[in-house]
Design goal:
The structure holds 3 protein chains of 3 kinds. By secondary structure, chain B is mainly α. Chain B has a domain at about 20-135 and about 155-240. Chain B has helices at about 5-40, 50-70, 80-100, 110-130, 160-180, 185-190, 195-200, 205-225, 235-250, 255-275, 280-295; strands at about 145-150, 155. A two-stranded antiparallel sheet of chain B has the order 1-2. In chain B, helix 1 (about 5-40) packs parallel to helix 5, helix 2 (about 50-70) packs across helix 8 and helix 9 (about 235-250) runs parallel beside helix 11. Chain C is α/β, with parallel strands linked by helices. Chain C contains 10 helices and 10 strands. Chain C has helices at about 45-55, 75-85, 100-105, 115-120, 125-135, 150-165, 180-195, 210-215, 230-235, 240-245, and strands at about 10-20, 20-30, 35-40, 60-65, 70, 85-90, 170-175, 200-205, 215-220, 225-230. In chain C, strand 7 (about 170-175), helix 7 (about 180-195) and strand 8 (about 200-205) form a beta-alpha-beta unit. The mean pLDDT of chain C is about 85. Classes of the chains: A mainly alpha, B mainly alpha, C alpha/beta. Chains A and B meet through helix 6, helix 12, helix 14 and helix 16 of A and helix 4, helix 9 and helix 11 of B.
Chain lengths: ~375, ~300, ~250
C-alpha cells in the first residue's frame, strides 16, 4: 500500500514482456510486410492508452478519438507533403511549389495555415498540441457545464462527423476524400523503403512504450485515483475540494495528445492520411479495440488493439463478408458479458493461480461493473 | 448571389426550397420520434436506429417487387401495406433485440451505445448479404409520382405531400399514446425507478419491450417514407444517425414539441442554406451551430426544471 | 444582538424554488463557532435542501449565506469546501473501488489542482494524518481493504473521516446515524462528541435520542421556514412543534 517504488515490480515485468514482444519477437518472426502492418496497429495503441485513462478510469466516453488521431496525422502529412512539393518536383503545375491537389483545385498560393508546417520543429510540437487544444476547447465548454455521459459521447461523435464532412468538402485545402497522399521523404530521408519502415516501426514501438510508462505514472499518481473516484462519486470528489471539470479536461487533453501522436506515426508508416481515419466509424472502432482488450487496463488495451486488428486483417483477407459479423458479435459479447475485456478475463483466471503460487495481497484494481452485475440484474428482473 | 433573379423568382425558389425542407423535416421527425421514445423516455442510446429504419425501407422495396410481380392490379396501393409491414418487421426485431441485448444493460447507458453499434454492424452485413451492396430504388405507383402546380412557378411533388401527411398522423398517434394515455407515464416510472414501478404493479419487462419495439417500429415507418425521397443501401442508415441524435438532443430529450421544433429548425436551416452554399458546407454550418448551441445550453431547447 | 459578521455562519433570507414550489422560503438562522446545531423537521421540510444551498450544490434564488463574513452563494462547490465547509451526504458516499487508505488520502487537503495531484507524494505527514483519522473512525485495521467490503456503518464512519481529514471549520452531516445498528449508533455518538470539539457542526437527524445527546441548539424547519429555534427543551415544549409533529 505504501509502495515507495515508482512502479510496482509486477507492472514493470508486464511492460518488459510487452516491450520484448514488439521490439524483439515480432521483428524477428515477421516478414517486413507483416511487421509494417503491426506497426500500423501500434499507432492505434496510442489511442487505446488515452481511452483507458479517459474512458476506463474517468468514465468519459469519447466517440471522437478519430478526430485527434486524424489531426495528428494531418499535421505530419502536411509537413511531408510540403517537403514533397518542392518547386522542382512540381514544375509541371500551373503554380509550382504548392501541393498537387491545391493546384488541381485552382489554388494559386499556399493557405496561411499550411505555412508553419514547413518547419519540422513546429510540426512535432503541433502533433500533440493541436489535438490537445481542440480537446481543451471542447472539454472547457462541456465539462464546465457538467455535460457528461451519453451527451458527451453524442457531441464528440457529431464533431467527428462535422470534421469529416469539412475535410472532404474543402478539398483544395485538405486533399478532400483522397486525403494527403504521395508522401516521400522526411528531411530528405526516403520513408518508403523497407529499411525506413523498419526504423519507423522501432521508433513507433519505442514511443508507444514511453507513452505507456507515462500513462502508468499518471495512473499511479493521486490524479489517477481521483479519476477513478470521479467516475464513481463525482459529487464526493467535488465536495472534497476538487474542481472536477479541470481533471476531466486534463485527461481528455492527454487522451487527445496521445491520439495525435498515434496519428502522426500512422502517417509516417503508411505514407498517407485521409478522412477515412477521422470520422464516426474509425472513432468507434478505436473504442472497440480498447474495449476488447479491457477498458481499465493499459496493457490490455494494447493487446486488444493488436489482436482485433490482426483478426480484422486475417478475416478480411479470407472471408470479407464474415468480418463485420464477427466484429459486431465480438463487440456485443464483450460489452454484455465481459465488460473488462481480455484483461478482465486474464485477471479472473490467472490471478487466483498466481495468488496460490505466491501468497500476497491482491493489488488494487479499478474495475468497472462486473459480469455479476449484469447477471444479477437479469435474475432480479 | 441574387443576381439574375427577380423577386418573384426568389419567392418561388424560397417556397420550393422551403417545401423540400418540409419533406426532410418530416423524415427527420419520423426518425427522431422513434429515437425520442427510446432515448428520451427509456434513456437507451440506440446506435442501430438507422439500421431499423433501413429494414423498413427494404421491406417496402420487397413489397413493391412482390406486388409488381404477383399482384400488379393492386400495385397502386401496395405502399399502405408496406408501411404496416415495415412497422411490424422493425418493431418485432426491436423487441427481440431488447430481449436479447438491451435488458441486460439498463444500468449502463454508455454500454448500450457500444452494444447497439455492434448490432448495427451485423445488420448492415445482413442487408449486404441479402440485398447486395448496391443501392436499390423503390418503384412508386403512378399516382404518387408527379407534382401539383400551386402557381406557374411553384411545383409541389406529391410524394412529398404523402410523407408529410404520414408524419402528421404518426406524430399525433405517438402524442396520444405517450403523453396523453397512461403508457408514457408507465414508461417514465419504469425508467426512473424500476423497483418501485414494479412494486406498484407495472410489468416492467413488458413496458420495456413494448416501448423499445414501438420506437423501432416507428423507425421502420420512417424507412418506408424514406424510400420515396432517397434510395436504400445497407449503410444509408448510418448517414442519418448523427443528425437524428442531434435533433433529439437539441430539442431536449424528453419533449415531443422540442423534438419537432428542433427537427424543423435543423431541416429548414439546412435546405435553405443548401441553395446558397454547397451541400457539405450547409451541413457543416448547421451541425456546428447545433453543437455550439448545445455547448451553451446542454439541456436542449425545451426542458423541465427539476431538483437535481 | 450580535452583528451577523460575528457568527461563523449567517444564513439570511435564503429562498429557492423549483418550478414555482418554494422548497426553502426566506430562511434565516445563525450558527456560532464551536456550536453543534441540529436541524429537525418532518419529511419535505427542506432540511437537505438547506445543506445543498450552503454547500453550493443547489443555487439559491435569493438570500445570502455568509461564512466567516464571506459570501458563499456565488462560489463554486470546491471553493466552498476550500473555504472550510465540509459536507456529508445522506447515503454513504465513498469510493468503493479504492482502499480505505486511498479514500482518506484523496480527501487530504493538499494537491487539489490538476498538477498538484500529479506531483502529490505520499509522504510521512500524509501517512501519519491518515492513520490518525483512521484510528479515530475505528478503521485503522482496515486501511488496506477496498471500501466496497466495509459494512454500512463503517462506510458512514469512513465518510465522516474523509471530512475530518479536511479539518473544516463547519461540518455538515446529513443523517449520520441513519441505518446504523444500536452499537454502531452509540459508537458514532462517541465519535462525533470527540471530533466535534473544535468546529461548528450542522446536523440533520431524525433520531431524537441522538439529537438530545449532542445538540447545543435545535432548529425546527417546516415547509421551508423556521418553525421554532432554541434548546431541545424549549423546542420540545413549543406548541407549534407539537402541532406539526403530532397534530393533523
Amino acid at each position: 500500500m505504501t509502495e515507495s517504488r515508482v512502479l510496482p515490480r509486477k507492472d514493470l515485468i508486464a511492460v518488459l514482456i510487452f516491450a520484448a514482444l514488439i521490439l524483439l519477437v515480432l521483428p524477428l518472426a515477421l516478414e517486413p510486410f507483416r511487421l509494417n502492418l503491426v506497426g500500423k496497429y501500434l499507432t492505434y495503441g496510442f489511442v487505446g492508452l488515452g481511452l483507458v485513462l479517459c474512458w476506463g478510469d474517468a468514465g468519459i466516453l469519447s466517440l471522437g478519438q478519430g478526430i485527434f488521431f486524424g489531426l495528428g496525422g494531418y499535421c505530419m502529412a502536411m509537413f511531408l507533403k510540403l517537403e514533397a512539393s518542392t518547386p522542382e518536383a512540381t514544375k509541371i503545375q500551373s503554380t509550382p511549389g504548392i501541393p498537387d491537389f491545391m493546384d488541381w483545385n485552382q489554388l494559386t498560393a499556399l493557405p496561411w495555415f499550411w505555412r508553419p508546417f514547413h518547419s519540422l520543429a513546429f510540426t512535432i510540437a503541433a502533433v500533440p498540441l493541436v489535438p490537445a487544444l481542440l480537446a481543451f476547447v471542447i472539454g472547457l465548454a462541456m465539462f464546465k457545464r457538467r455535460v457528461g455521459g451519453t451527451y458527451f459521447a453524442i457531441i464528440t461523435q457529431a464533431i467527428a462527423a462535422i470534421l469529416t464532412i469539412l475535410i472532404i468538402g474543402q478539398q483544395g485545402y485538405t486533399g478532400g476524400v483522397n486525403g494527403i497522399t504521395d508522401l516521400r521523404t522526411l528531411l530528405g530521408w526516403d520513408i518508403r523503403t523497407d529499411h525506413a519502415k523498419l526504423v519507423l516501426y522501432f521508433v513507433s514501438g519505442g514511443l508507444l512504450i514511453a507513452c505507456l510508462l507515462a500513462a502508468q505514472l499518471v495512473r499511479r499518481s493521486k490524479l489517477g485515483r481521483i479519476l477513478v473516484a470521479m467516475r464513481e462519486r463525482e459529487d464526493r470528489v467535488r465536495f472534497s475540494g476538487y474542481d472536477v471539470a479541470n481533471f476531466k479536461i486534463f485527461v481528455f487533453c492527454v487522451a487527445a495528445a496521445l491520439a495525435g501522436i498515434g496519428g502522426a506515426m500512422f502517417t509516417l508508416q503508411v505514407g498517407f492520411m485521409s478522412p477515412s481515419f477521422v470520422g464516426i466509424v474509425p472513432s468507434i472502432e478505436l473504442v472497440i479495440f480498447a474495449a476488447v482488450g479491457g477498458r481499465t487496463s493499459l496493457l490490455g488495451a494494447l493487446y486488444g488493439t493488436l489482436l482485433v486488428n490482426w483478426a480484422k486483417t486475417t478475416f478480411s483477407e479470407d472471408l470479407p463478408q464474415l468480418w463485420l459479423f464477427a466484429m459486431g458479435a465480438l463487440f456485443i459479447a464483450v460489452v454484455v458479458a465481459f465488460p473488462n475485456g481480455l484483461a478482465g478475463l486474464v485477471q479472473d483466471s490467472l490471478a487466483p493461480v498466481l495468488a496460490r503460487l505466491r501468497p500476497q495481497r491482491a493489488e488494487l484494481r479499478p474495475t468497472a461493473p462486473t459480469v455479476v452485475d449484469a447477471a444479477e440484474q437479469g435474475g432480479v428482473r | 448571389m441574387f443576381m439574375g433573379y427577380s423577386f418573384g423568382d426568389l419567392g418561388s425558389i424560397l417556397a420550393m426550397q422551403g417545401f423540400a425542407g418540409l419533406v426532410l423535416f418530416s423524415v427527420f421527425v419520423l426518425m427522431a420520434l422513434g429515437l425520442a421514445i427510446i432515448f428520451g423516455q427509456m434513456g437507451v442510446i440506440n446506435m442501430a436506429h438507422g439500421e431499423f429504419m433501413i429494414l423498413g425501407a427494404y421491406v417496402t422495396y420487397l413489397c413493391s417487387r412482390l406486388f409488381a410481380a404477383y399482384l400488379p392490379g393492386a400495385f397502386a396501393f401496395y405502399f399502405f401495406l408496406a408501411i404496416i409491414l415495415a412497422f411490424c418487421a422493425s418493431g418485432l426485431l426491436g423487441m427481440a433485440v431488447e430481449w436479447a441485448l438491451i435488458r441486460h444493460l439498463y444500468k449502463r447507458p454508455l454500454d448500450t451505445l457500444l452494444a447497439t453499434w455492434g448490432l448495427s454492424l451485423i445488420l448492415q452485413q445482413v442487408y449486404r448479404s441479402v440485398f447486395g451492396a448496391r443501392e436499390v430504388g423503390v418503384e412508386l405507383p403512378g399516382w404518387m409520382m408527379g407534382s401539383t402546380h400551386l402557381s406557374e412557378q411553384i411545383e409541389i411533388p406529391i410524394n412529398g405531400l404523402i410523407v408529410m401527411a404520414l408524419t402528421t398522423l404518426i406524430t399525433l398517434a405517438v402524442y396520444l399514446l405517450i403523453f396523453r394515455a397512461g403508457w408514457g407515464r408507465q414508461v417514465r416510472a419504469v425508467t426512473q425507478n424500476r423497483a418501485m414501478a414494479s412494486a406498484v404493479g407495472i410489468d416492467t419487462e413488458r413496458v420495456d419491450r413494448l416501448t423499445y419495439g414501438l420506437g423501432c417500429g416507428i423507425a421502420g415507418i420512417a424507412g418506408s417514407a424514406f424510400t420515396m425521397i432517397g434510395s436504400t443501401s445497407p449503410t444509408a442508415g448510418q448517414l442519418y444517425i448523427v443528425d437524428t441524435f442531434l435533433v433529439v438532443v437539441f430539442g431536449g430529450a424528453q419533449s415531443l414539441i422540442g423534438t419537432i421544433a428542433s427537427a424543423f429548425t435543423i431541416s429548414q436551416a439546412r435546405s435553405t442554406m443548401e441553395f446558397f452554399l454547397s451541400g457539405s458546407m450547409a451541413q457543416v454550418l448547421v451541425l456546428l451551430s447545433v453543437v455550439g448551441i448545445l455547448m451553451l445550453r446542454p439541456q436542449g431547447l425545451f426542458v423541465l426544471k427539476v431538483r437535481r | 444582538m450580535t452583528e451577523p459578521a460575528d457568527f461563523l455562519l449567517a444564513v439570511e433570507g435564503l429562498t429557492v424554488s423549483f418550478d414555482g414550489f418554494k422548497a426553502v422560503d426566506d430562511l434565516s438562522f445563525y450558527v456560532d463557532a464551536n456550536e453543534i446545531r441540529v436541524i429537525i423537521g418532518p419529511n419535505g421540510a427542506g432540511k437537505t435542501t438547506v445543506l445543498d444551498l450552503i454547500c453550493g450544490r443547489t443555487r439559491a434564488s435569493a438570500g445570502s449565506v455568509r461564512f466567516r463574513g464571506r459570501e458563499l452563494t456565488q462560489l463554486k462547490e470546491h471553493q466552498i469546501v476550500q473555504a472550510g465547509v465540509g459536507r456529508k451526504f445522506q447515503t454513504p458516499s465513498i469510493y468503493e473501488d479504492l482502499t480505505v487508505f486511498e479514500n482518506l488520502e484523496i480527501s487530504f487537503p493538499r494537491g487539489r489542482s490538476v498538477f498538484g495531484a500529479l506531483a502529490f507524494r505520499r509522504d510521512a505527514p500524509v501517512r501519519e494524518r491518515v492513520r490518525e483519522v483512521a484510528s479515530l473512525i475505528f478503521l485503522e485495521p482496515l486501511l488496506g481493504e477496498r471500501a466496497e467490503a466495509l459494512s454500512h456503518g463503517q462506510k458512514q464512519w469512513l465518510e465522516i473521516g474523509m471530512l475530518l481529514i479536511q479539518d473544516p471549520a463547519l461540518l455538515m452531516l446529513d443523517e449520520p446515524v441513519a441505518g446504523m445498528s444500536v452499537s454502531e449508533r452509540r459508537k458514532t455518538a462517541e465519535l462525533l462528541r470527540r471530533v466535534l470539539r473544535d468546529r461548528a457542526v450542522l446536523v440533520i437527524e431524525h433520531d431524537m435520542g441522538f439529537v438530545e445527546d449532542i445538540a447545543h441548539r435545535v432548529t425546527v424547519l417546516h415547509q421551508g421556514r423556521v418553525l421554532s429555534e432554541g434548546s431541545m427543551q424549549h423546542v420540545k415544549s413549543d406548541p407549534k412543534v407539537v402541532e406539526v409533529y403530532l397534530g393533523h
